[in-house]
Design brief:
The structure holds two protein chains of two kinds.
Chain A: H1 3-16, H2 18-56, E1 60-64, H3 73-80, E2 85-100, E3 103-112, H4 116-120, E4 124-127, H5 132-136, E5 141-144, H6 146-152, E6 162-165, E7 168-176, E8 187-191, H7 192-199, E9 207-212, H8 218-233, E10 244-247, H9 248-291, H10 293-301, H11 306-343, H12 351-378, H13 381-386
Parallel strand pairs in A: 3-8, 5-7
Antiparallel strand pairs in A: 1-9, 1-10, 2-3, 2-6, 2-9, 4-7, 5-8, 6-7
Chain B: E1 4-17, E2 20-33, E3 37-41, H1 48-55, E4 63-68, E5 71-72, H2 78-88, E6 89-92, H3 104-114, H4 119-132, H5 148-160, E7 166-170, H6 178-193, E8 197-202, H7 205-209, E9 213-218, E10 221-227
Parallel strand pairs in B: 3-8, 3-9, 6-7, 7-8
Antiparallel strand pairs in B: 1-2, 1-4, 4-5, 9-10
Helix pairs in contact in B: 3-4, 3-5, 5-6
The chains are: A alpha+beta, B alpha/beta.
Bound molecules: adenosine-5'-triphosphate and magnesium ion.
Magnesium ion binds near residues 48 and 49 of chain B.
Keywords (chain A): Cell membrane, Membrane, Transmembrane, Transmembrane helix
Membrane topology (chain A): Multi-pass membrane protein
Subcellular location (chain A): Cell membrane
């Protein structure tokens, strides 16, 4: 008998026992659905993290310190002079309050130097960045981050109106589209001069960001920036707790390795659940071989070879497993789609996930189908026919 | 020597259950020629089914030689035995043994498909055979929608469709009422008139009496081999 004929026998049987077939597949369905959904969560999460890291730029170094008076604007100017540097900006971050009308909440008041918006280019929802005229006039203008704007319930018509930062009047010029949620305290951005008037901490800054001209120069820049700061403060190699230089590329790599580990973990879970699903299929196939012993005997009597019986049962196991894989894939992608909407990340059906899901369910069918199929094929025709 | 389709030479078949040996057939000699209608008769446990399994190439003897359509079965591999069975033997069982979830037509097509014949050709031959046995209206009925007599006719069509050298019927009337049973026997006789070799296994002496040749088995031995009208 040709393979097609044998396959149709297997399909016939699966269709004739629909409910039981569905229950048999359940293990594989759940295993595959779980792995597809979980993969998409990890994907989405790392997408989100990488996106927020990427807004900071991959060829940037971030110089920070645990101490409020460790880094000054003078350090920043010196760093800006280094050969590899294309852009430099500083941030001065302080906790404060923001208020409009009767609403007052805590927020981070961030003073940024003039290149900040140019370099970071955050998405803007309404209005504009702090302009060069804001800087020239040391104007008390403010750009709200999305979360801070949400906290105060700011709307489009507030643009150009007054809001209070630590009790002082500022003019709202823009709101960013960078909502993170998760209860992070909101950020608002003002010029460095305005921040100093609010907090009087000249000349200290919280962080200095220097951007290399090309991504290849980042490592060289890190080396020379370190050397420069050490020289300015007369520090030995051991005593470098005064400041930390963070390399964005390293950070992205670190996140990458975390998501890789997570991926590995998920693969492990998937493997276990697929094995459990496979054992379920094997179990039912063994029962089925027993129940159909007579049928096997009759088939042998009317001319079926051992190989015909083997193929029939093996295909049945493979079809069960593969169908379970397809159903699981569909359910998993639906769950992933729903999660993507909730988690606000981009939903995409990944070809490698699809291939992996189908490939593994095929493998499970073969591995766990072989034994029952061999059992069926090895039955002696006379015993099979006598079987009650 | 005529055209022998079955030749048993000193055939013995022992069954080992635990450490107990049962000799189901003991040194049996039997020759059946093409075109014969032979009834194999005997009480329960006399070895009829054992003999049928040997003639049907489902089993091999413990000692002696079984020759079917000129081939000795003793030394054949499982695959070779299956090929011989598929070519030379058509089975009719007591309990009809139609395949589950399968229509009459699919049942009759199955032996042809196992021979590697194309589905199109198999469908044609199977349809012709069912029509010949008066089941043209029942092609797509499965066994749950066929009467016992109809099921047995489907089973006979399935046994005949490959044009086997021998039709082996083990108690084909055992699960039928006497009228339907008689019709089945008449059908087998008719097929015999067309030149088919029929071996009918039964413990019903009336049915056996209507066969031109009767082989009586008792305790694994051939007790009598009669020819002519009983
Ligand atoms: N597979 C087997 N294993 C062990 N013993 C068997 C086997 N098949 C048959 N026997 C024994 O061989 C003897 C002959 O059995 P067989 O089935 O050939 O009898 P039978 O004439 O067909 O009887 P019945 O009319 O009841 O079908 C019996 O004693 C039976 O118990
Ligand atoms: Mg019997």
């Amino acid at each position: 008998m040709r393979l097609l004929g044998t396959a149709s026998l297997a399909l016939n049987r699966i269709w004739a026992t629909k409910i039981r077939s569905l229950l048999t597949m359940l293990g594989v369905v759940i295993g595959v659905a779980a792995i597809v959904a979980l993969t998409s969560i990890v994907d989405g999460a790392s997408q989100g993290i990488n996106k927020s890291l990427a807004t900071l730029g991959t060829n940037q170094l971030n110089v920070t310190s645990m101490f409020p008076d460790a880094l000054s604007e003078l350090d920043a100017r010196a760093l800006a002079e280094l050969d590899e540097v294309s852009v430099m900006f500083v941030q001065s971050v302080n906790e404060g309050t923001i208020a409009t009308g009767d609403t007052r909440v805590n927020a981070r008041l961030v003073g940024v130097s003039s290149q900040y918006f140019e370099a970071v280019k955050p998405d803007i929802a309404i209005g504009s960045y702090l302009s060069s005229s804001s800087y020239a006039a040391s104007a008390k203008d403010v750009v709200f981050g999305g979360d801070a704007a949400g906290d105060l319930g700011l709307t489009k018509d507030m643009l150009g109106k007054t809001v209070k930062l630590n009790g002082q009047d500022f003019r709202l010029v823009g709101i960013l589209d960078d909502q993170v949620g998760f209860g992070t305290s909101g950020r608002v951005y003002v010029t460095l001069d305005a921040a100093r008037k609010l907090f009087s901490q000249y000349p200290y800054v919280s962080s200095i960001v220097v951007q290399a001209k090309t991504p290849e120069q980042v490592d060289a820049l890190q080396f020379s920036a370190d050397a420069l700061l050490r020289e300015r403060y007369g520090l030995t190699a051991e005593a470098e707790t005064r400041y930390t230089i963070t390399n964005q590329a390293n950070l992205i790599a670190a996140v990458g390795s975390i998501t890789d580990t997570l991926g590995l973990l998920l693969t492990g879970i998937a493997a276990i659940s697929l094995i459990v699903g496979g054992i379920g299929i094997m179990n039912i196939m063994l029962v089925s071989v027993r129940e159909r012993t007579r049928e096997i005997g009759v088939r042998r009597a009317i001319g079926a070879k051992q190989s015909n019986i083997l193929t029939q049962f093996l295909i049945e196991a493979i079809v069960l497993s593969l169908a379970g894989g397809v159903i699981g894939l569909i359910l998993g992608e639906i769950a992933a789609f729903a999660l993507a909407i909730i988690g606000d990340w981009v939903f995409a059906i990944r070809l490698d996930t699809v291939m992996l899901a189908l490939g593994f369910s095929l493998l499970v069918g073969v591995v766990f189908g072989v034994w029952p199929a061999r059992t069926a094929a090895k039955l002696e025709p006379i015993d099979a026919l006598r079987f009650e | 020597m005529g055209d022998e389709v079955v030749r048993l030479d000193k055939v013995r078949r022992d069954y080992l259950v635990g450490d107990q040996i049962t000799t189901a057939l003991d040194s049996v000699d039997l020759v059946i020629e093409r075109g014969e209608f032979v009834a194999i008769v005997g009480p329960s446990g006399s070895g009829k089914s054992t003999m049928m399994n040997l003639i049907g190439c489902l089993d091999r003897p413990s000692a002696g030689t079984v020759m079917i359509a000129g081939d000795a079965t003793n030394s054949l591999t499982d695959n070779q035995l299956t090929s011989l069975r598929s070519k030379a033997i058509g089975f009719v069982f007591q309990q009809f043994q139609l395949l589950p979830n399968t229509t009459a037509l699919e049942n009759v097509m199955a032996p042809l498909l196992y021979q590697g014949i194309s589905p199109k050709q198999a469908k044609k031959s199977a349809t012709d055979m069912l029509v010949k046995l008066g089941l043209g209206e029942r092609l797509n009925f499965d066994r749950n929608r066929l009467s016992g007599g109809q099921q047995q006719r489907v089973a006979i069509a399935r046994a005949l469709v490959t044009g086997p050298d021998i039709v082996l019927a083990d108690e084909p009337t055992g699960a039928l009422d006497s009228k339907t049973g008689a019709a089945v026997i008449d059908l087998l006789k008719e097929l015999n008139k067309e030149g088919r070799t029929i071996i009918l296994i039964t413990h019903d002496l009336d049915i056996a009496a209507s066969a031109p040749r009767r082989v009586f088995l008792r305790d694994g031995l051939i007790e009598r081999d009669e020819r002519g009208a009983a």
